[in-house]
Design goal:
Order of helices and strands: EEEHHHHHE
CATH architecture: 2-Layer Sandwich
Radius of gyration: 15 Å
Number of helices: 5
Helix content: 40-55%
Number of strands: 4
CATH superfamily: Band 7 domain
Largest sheet: 4 strands, antiparallel
CATH class: Alpha Beta
Distance between the termini: 35 Å
């Protein structure tokens, strides 16, 4: 078990949907893949080490939090986004909403998103 966790920032953490996620766009179920990277800011080292003592657990938790947040963000944008192409065009807004949506899921572990980049959004 690797218990080393940095004290301030974790950079270049890759995340993505390991399997396509189902979202509703224009009243239709669409399967999409999203990939990106992020940096995490450690806000409470002791809490982080207590809740996620292993770096593999950390990566898994961040990935699942971001995937859930992405699904929620797309649902929130569903009135103005009717296709995957529109979601790609609104990527800056989607990224900002994704960052906001992930706050609760990470805050309870002593983390917050620093930078968040989406590398690709594509229909499966």
């Amino acid at each position: 078990m690797n218990t080393y966790l940095p004290m301030q920032e974790i950079k270049d953490l890759l995340w993505g949907t390991p399997m396509p996620i189902a979202v509703v766009l224009n009243s239709e179920m669409v399967m999409i893949h999203i990939k990106g990277s992020c940096s995490l800011i450690v806000t409470d080292v002791e809490l982080l080490q207590e809740k996620l003592p292993d770096t593999e657990m950390l990566a898994s938790h961040v990935r699942s939090t971001l995937v859930l947040a992405a699904t929620d963000a797309i649902a929130d944008m569903s009135k103005k986004v009717t296709s995957v192409e529109q979601l790609v065009k609104l990527q800056p807004e989607f990224s900002m909403l994704l960052k906001i949506k992930s706050t609760d899921g990470l805050g309870g572990f002593g983390l917050k998103i620093g930078e968040l980049d989406i590398h690709s959004i594509r229909q499966a």
